[in-house]
Amino acid sequence: MNNKQFAIIGSWTGENNKGLHTFEYDSSDCTFKELKTYNDYMNVGCTPHVSSKKVLYVLNETLKDKDYGGRLYTFKVEDQSLTNMNDVSTLSVNPCFSVLSADEKYALVVHHTASGNGISVVEKDEEGNVFSYIRHDDAIVVLYATYEDGSIGKILDMHIPQHEFDAKIQRKHSKLHSVYLDKKTNLYFVFDKGLDKVYTYKIEKDKLVYLNCVDVLEGSKPRYGVIHPTENILYGTNEGQKCIYVYAYKQNGSIEKINEVCLSEKDNKLCLASDIQKHPHKEILYVALRGIDDLFVLDITDSKNPVKLQEINCGGRHPKALNFSKDGNYLFSCNMDSDNVAIFTIDEEGKLIYNKDLHVNKASSILFIE
Q: What is the DSSP code (8-state) at residue 216?
C-alpha cells in the first residue's frame, strides 16, 4: 500500500501567500512535505473537490477576477502536481461553494455576494409611499456543463432563489453559502444565511428546477451542512446560533426542520459555527465553532437526535474548515487566524486527541488525493 498522498491546502483573505499550497502527505506517520503553491492570488474559501477523472475544481471567492465577479478553475491532478485546464466566470461576486452532479456532467456554484457592495434604490409603492433600500449583487445558483475531460463548459442555467418570494423579501440581502448533493435522491440543498432559508433543487433536462425551501429562525444564518449517507437527513450549522439543526426531507424536495442541538453553554455572542463533517466510517459528526474556537463531537447513532460527546479546543483560532485523512484516523482543523492546521487523532469512540499542527498561512481548507 502506498502511504504517500497528495494534499492540497487552500488559503483565504491573507495579504500574502494565498492560493493552493500542495504537500506530499505520508499517512504512515501523518507528516507533510511542502511541494509548491499555485495561483497565489486566489481566495480559496471552500474546500476544493476532485472528480473521478482527477480534475480539481476550485473557486476564487472574490469581487473581481478577470471580469466582475468570481471565477471557477479546473486543474488536472497528476504526479503530485496541478496543471490548469480552464477557468470561467461565475457571473456574480464571492462564489463560495461548488458541487458536481453524481454523473459529473454538471457543476453547480453558489454565491455569498458582498455586504458592502450595494447601491441605494428609491421606489414608490401602490399607495404612493416613497421608500428606499439597498440593492445587492444577485446571489445566484449557476449550472454549468462539463466537458468530456472534466473541464468546465458553458452555463446552462441559473436561478436566483430570492426572486421566489415577495417584494419585501426581495429587498433583503440573500447570501448563498453552500450547496450539497444527496446522491440517494439526486436532490441539491442550498443554504442561504442572508434570508435564513434552506432550498432544494434538482437538475432536469439541463435546467435547474427549484423545488422547495424551509424557513429557519430569523438571524440563525444557516451556513454549512452534511447529508446522512443512508437516511433522508440533513445536518446544518448556523452562524447566528450555537447549535446545529436537523432536517428531514423527501424525494419531492419537501424539507422540514425536526430538531436542534445546542453545542456550547459558553456565553459568547461571537460563537459562529463554521464547518460540519461526518466521519467516513463512524456515526459521528464534527462541528467547528469560531469565537470560542472549539470543536464538537456528536454521536448520530440515532440520526434524528445527535448526542454531544466532546468539546475540545481547535488548536488555534478561527477554525474555518474540517476534513479527515483517507483512513479516517485523523481530523484536520484549518485555523485561519492562527495560520495553522491542527491535527487530531481520532480514537475508537470518535473522540479527538490533539496531536500536532502544521503552519499554513490563512489555512481555510484541506483535501487529500490518492
A: -
Give dist(CA 325, CA 209) in Å, integer: 35
Name residue 195's amino acid.
Answer: L
CB 328 within 8 A of CB 287: no
Q: Smallest Cα–Cα separation from 68: which of 57, 60, 76?
A: 60
Q: Which residue has the cell 468530456?
A: 148
Q: What is the rounded distance in angstroms from the CA atom of residue 137 to the CA atom of residue 270? A: 26
DSSP labels, 280-341: SSSSEEEEEEETTTEEEEEE-SSTTS-EEEEEEE-SSS-EEEEEE-TTSSEEEEEEGGGTEE
Q: Cα 6–7–8 angle (5° rounding)?
A: 125
What does 6-52 look like in DSSP terms, one character per residue? EEEEEE-S-SSS-EEEEEEEETTTTEEEEEEEE-TT----S--EE-T
DSSP-assigned beta bridge partners for residue 120: 134
Q: Which three cell numbers stand for residue 35?
A: 511541494
Give, in order, the Cα–Cα distances in Å from 102 to each of 51, 52, 179, 180, 185: 10, 10, 14, 11, 10
Give pTM, 2 decimals: 0.94
For residue 136, what is the DSSP state?
Answer: P
Q: How far apart are CA 26 and CA 146, in angstroms?
A: 32
From first to last of the 370 residues of the chain, give the pLDDT tens digit: 578 999 999 998 766 668 999 999 999 999 999 999 999 889 998 889 999 999 999 999 988 877 788 999 999 999 999 999 999 999 999 999 999 999 999 999 999 998 777 888 888 888 899 988 888 888 999 999 999 999 999 999 999 998 888 767 777 889 999 999 999 999 999 999 999 999 999 999 999 999 999 999 999 999 999 999 999 999 999 999 889 999 999 999 999 999 999 998 876 667 788 999 999 999 999 999 998 999 999 999 999 999 999 999 999 999 999 999 999 999 999 999 999 999 999 999 999 999 999 999 999 999 999 8
Question: Hey, what's the cell of 187?
Answer: 436532490
Q: Which residue has the cell 428531514?
A: 248
